[in-house]
Amino acid sequence: MTLFLIPFAKAWHVLEAASIYVIFGLLVSGFLRVFLSPNAVANHLGGGKIRSVFKAALLGIPLPL
Question: Residue 59 is part of which domain span?
Answer without folding.
Answer: 32-65
